[in-house]
From TrEMBL:
Residues 170-283 form the Alcohol dehydrogenase-like C-terminal domain. InterPro entries: ADH-like_C (IPR013149), ADH-like_N (IPR013154), GroES-like_sf (IPR011032), NAD(P)-bd_dom_sf (IPR036291), Zn_alcohol_dh (IPR050129). This is Alcohol dehydrogenase catalytic domain-containing protein. Residues 24-128 form the Alcohol dehydrogenase-like N-terminal domain. GO terms for molecular function: oxidoreductase activity. Keywords: Oxidoreductase. It comes from Marivita cryptomonadis. Transmembrane segments: none annotated. It holds the Pfam family ADH_N.
C-alpha cells in the first residue's frame, strides 16, 4: 500500500510500505480522508520524542470498513485505543488510560496511508448524507469539544460565558464552534497570521482579532506556547478559567502569582473521552457545528508539499485533509 512516511526532520516520503491486515478482533479500514494535525507538524519538525522516524503519522481519519460483518460501513475513527478495564476507562475517562495507544505512535502506524486496523469500539458510523472528508474532522473537533465542556463546567455560575480562544487553526476554530454549540454568549478568536485571520472573519464568520484586549471569564489556549500562556495569564478575568489544549512547547509563560492571587483555574485537557468523540460526531451529523467548509483537500501523494506550506504559514484554511487515493 502507499503511505506518507515521516523519515526525519522536515522529511516526508510518499512510498510503498508493506500491506497491513486487520489485527485480531479489529477491522481493516480503507482511509478516504485524513487531516494534518498540529501534533503531526510537531513530529515533522522533530519536536515530539514520542514519534521517532521512520513512522506513518496521521490520526484524524474517516473511511470505509473492508471485509467482515461491517464491510462497506462508512466510519469516522476515534484513534485513541484504550484498555477498557482500568479505573480511568471504567470511569469513562478513557483519555487518561495508562496504557492508551493512538494511531501515529508506536505500536500503531498512522492514517497517512491507504489502510489502518482499528477495533470496532473506535468506529462511529457516518450517515450517507455526510461526506467522509467532513467526518474526518470529528477527531480535532472532539479535542476542542472536550476542552470546551471541561472549561464551561469549571466556570463559576455567576460569571458571564464569554470566551477568548488563542489560535485560529483547526483546534482553535473548533473550540469556538464547540463553545457556541454549548451556549457560550460570545467567542473571540486570536489569530496573528493576517491571511488566516481574514479567512476566519470572511469565510467562517468568526469574530477574529490579531491581539486580544480586556479580560475574559474563559480562555482556551489552542496553541500552547509560552507566549500564548502569557497572553492567557494576562487576559484571564479574576475567578475565571484557563483551559490549555495546545502542545506547542513544555514550559514558560504562566503568571502563577497572578493566577494564585486572582483564583484563576487552570485546566490541562488531553484528547477526549469516548463519549466526547461520539457526541462530537453526532453534532457534525446534526449540523450543530456549522457547514464545516473551512478545510482544503489535497492528494496524500502531495503531503510533503502540504506540510511545507503549513510550516511556512502559506495556508489560510485552518485544516488540510489528505486523500490517499487521489
Amino acid at each position: 500500500m502507499k503511505a506518507l512516511v515521516y523519515e526525519g526532520v522536515e522529511t516526508l516520503a510518499f512510498r510503498d510500505v508493506p500491506d497491513i491486515t486487520a489485527r485480531d478482533g479489529e477491522h481493516l479500514i480503507r482511509i478516504e480522508a485524513v487531516g494534518i494535525c498540529g501534533s503531526d507538524m510537531h513530529a515533522y519538525l522533530g519536536h515530539d520524542a514520542r514519534r521517532p522516524a521512520p513512522l506513518i503519522l496521521g490520526h484524524e481519519a474517516a473511511g470505509v470498513v473492508q471485509g467482515g460483518p461491517l464491510d462497506g460501513t462508512r466510519v469516522t475513527i476515534n484513534p485513541l485505543v484504550t484498555c477498557g478495564t482500568c479505573p480511568a476507562c471504567q470511569a469513562a475517562r478513557e483519555n487518561l488510560c495508562p496504557t492508551r495507544q493512538i494511531i501515529s505512535m508506536e505500536p500503531r502506524p498512522g492514517a497517512f496511508a491507504q489502510y489502518v486496523s482499528m477495533p470496532a469500539s473506535n468506529l462511529v458510523t457516518v450517515p450517507d448524507a455526510v461526506a467522509l472528508d467532513k467526518a474526518s474532522l470529528a477527531e480535532p473537533l472532539a479535542v476542542s469539544w472536550h476542552a470546551a465542556r471541561l472549561a464551561l463546567a469549571a466556570l463559576h455560575p455567576s460569571m458571564e460565558r464569554n470566551a477568548l480562544v488563542l489560535g485560529g487553526g483547526a483546534i482553535g476554530l473548533a473550540a469556538a464552534l464547540a463553545l457556541r454549540a454549548m451556549g457560550a454568549d460570545s467567542v473571540t478568536v486570536v489569530e496573528p497570521n493576517p491571511t488566516r485571520c481574514a479567512f476566519l472573519i470572511d469565510t467562517c464568520g468568526e469574530r477574529a482579532v490579531a491581539e486580544p484586549d480586556g479580560l475574559y471569564p474563559l480562555i482556551i489556549d489552542a496553541v500552547g506556547y509560552a507566549a500564548t500562556r502569557a497572553t492567557a495569564s494576562t487576559h484571564a478575568q479574576p475567578g475565571g478559567v484557563m483551559a490549555h489544549v495546545g502542545l506547542g512547547e513544555d514550559t514558560g509563560g504562566l503568571d502563577v502569582r497572578r493566577m494564585t492571587l486572582q483564583e484563576i483555574t487552570f485546566i490541562g485537557t488531553y484528547t477526549y473521552t469516548a463519549q466526547d468523540f461520539r457526541d462530537t460526531a453526532q453534532a457534525i451529523f446534526d449540523g450543530r457545528l456549522g457547514p464545516l467548509d473551512w478545510f482544503q483537500t489535497r492528494p496524500l501523494a502531495e503531503g510533503a508539499a502540504a506540510f511545507h506550506d503549513l510550516r511556512h504559514g502559506a495556508v489560510a484554511t485552518p485544516k488540510i485533509v489528505l486523500d490517499p487515493w487521489a
